Structures are given as structure tokens and as C-alpha cells.
């Protein structure tokens, strides 16, 4: 598994864990940086994703809500919501990752971690956000 792919997966895991435990993801990130729970510290890209999401949380969620026709954020499976947040952040705020790569990586995570219907949903929603991105910036 590529380094950035692992970093994205770890970011999704942190988002999911924070939501499941009802804790602030920024606080959880700080805790994990200070006291890692595995022998490997968090990768810099995982930290960048989570910190970027914390900074742009409201904007990312607003876009996901706006373009997910018929689905509120609360109605989405928890894992899908985490994957979509990471993918949307990369599309909107990462200058290093091309949109098709961000979408492909998010679809791969949804394929591995979520339901059979999730990859198609993730692909469609992130593709739509990528399409409208020039009007947002």
C-alpha cells in the first residue's frame, strides 16, 4: 500500500473513531500525535488531512450536504461520511493531489471499508464536487 494511501486510511480511521467516541477529531489527533497507540507515529499527510479538515469542516460538510441529493450527512454510513470528508478536502484544498486521484483513492477506501453501494455513491458525489470546484474558489 502506498504511503499516501495509508495516510488517507488512517485519517478516515481517526475521523470514524472520533465520531464513534463522540470526541473532537482535533483533540483526538493531538492525543495520537503526543501518545501514539501503535509503534508507528502518524504520518505527516494524515496530520495534514485531519488538521485541514478541522480548519474547513463547515465548508466541507456544507458541500457534501448540498450535492448529496436525497442524503443528509446524518443518514450516510459513518465510514462513508469519513471517506467523503477526506476526499472532499483533498479535492478542495490539496494542491498536490489531482482531483481524479483523490476520487479514486476515496472510492478504493469505500470499497474496502464500507458497503457494496458506497463506492458508486462516493464516486458520484466527489466527482460532482470536482466539477463545481471552479465555481467555489
Brief write-up:
The chain is an all-alpha fold and 137 residues long. It contains 6 helices and no strands.
Overview of the molecule:
This protein is an all-alpha fold and 137 residues long. It has one domain (3-136): NusB-like (N-utilizing Substance Protein B Homolog, Chain A), CATH 1.10.940.10. The protein has 6 helices and no strands. 33% of the residues are buried.
User: Biggest β-sheet: count, sense, barrel?
Assistant: none
Structural category: mainly alpha
Number of helices: 6
Q: Can you tell me the residue ranges where pLDDT is under 50 for at least 5 consecutive residues?
A: none
Helix content: over 70%
Please identify, by name, the CATH architecture: Orthogonal Bundle
Output the radius of gyration.
14 Å
| Distance linking N and C termini | 32 Å
CATH superfamily name?
NusB-like
Pfam families: NusB
Keywords: RNA-binding, Transcription, Transcription antitermination, Transcription regulation
Family: Belongs to the NusB family.
Domain NusB/RsmB/TIM44: 6-130
